[in-house]
From TrEMBL:
<dbReference type="InterPro" id="IPR029016">
    <property type="entry name" value="GAF-like_dom_sf"/>
</dbReference>
<feature type="domain" description="GAF">
    <location>
        <begin position="25"/>
        <end position="174"/>
    </location>
</feature>
<dbReference type="InterPro" id="IPR003018">
    <property type="entry name" value="GAF"/>
</dbReference>
<dbReference type="Pfam" id="PF13185">
    <property type="entry name" value="GAF_2"/>
</dbReference>
<protein>
    <submittedName>
        <fullName>GAF domain-containing protein</fullName>
    </submittedName>
</protein>
């Protein structure tokens, strides 16, 4: 069973959406909730797939702008990083150490320059199994997410999927 932080954040995100709060603010709220629940100085980044299938920043409240610019427009690929791999495969990707994982060969300088040593990423998926983006967590220690953290982030990713899907539907109906 996961922490009440996750359940509370899930419920609050849905209320925020019903009250007309913009998608970016809701995604930022979800990212912050995941950071709080994970502890360990974890930093969360939500990346969204655009119409061209490239990863764009959705909400990354604690990552610097130059980092976000450097990863902007990544193409999903099973052998690149954690978020690009999760977006390509639709599966959780865990990287306890950037130096021990060849998927980070071209990009490892980016997170390590910020003091991160590993990350993991949960795909954000619709009920119809369409990947909308990723929910990535960076760590400053060599660690893997606990079962509780994975289950909790899956719940938050499902809230993000609802918000993103409903926002997209609203944008297309205009």
């Amino acid at each position: 069973m996961f922490s009440s932080i996750y359940r509370s954040a899930y419920n609050e995100a849905l209320k925020m959406f019903d009250n007309g709060v913009c998608k970016v603010d809701i995604l930022s709220f979800l990212a912050s909730a995941a950071e709080t629940a994970a502890g360990y100085d974890a930093v969360v980044s939500i990346l969204l797939l655009d119409e061209e299938g490239l990863l764009r920043n959705g909400a990354s409240p604690k990552l610097p702008q130059d980092y976000l610019q450097a990863i902007d427009g990544l193409k999903p690929h099973p052998n690149v990083g954690t978020c690009a791999a999760a977006a390509a495969t639709g599966k959780v990707v865990i990287t306890p150490s950037f130096y021990a994982d060849n998927k980070w060969a071209e990009l490892r300088h980016l997170p390590t320059s910020l003091g991160f040593v590993g990350a993991w990423s949960m795909p954000i998926i619709t009920g119809g199994n369409k990947v909308l983006g990723t929910f990535g967590t960076y760590y400053r220690d060599h660690k893997q997410p606990s079962a509780e953290e994975m289950e909790g982030v899956q719940l938050l990713a499902s809230a993000a999927a609802m918000v993103i899907s409903k926002s997209m539907a609203a944008e297309h109906s205009i």
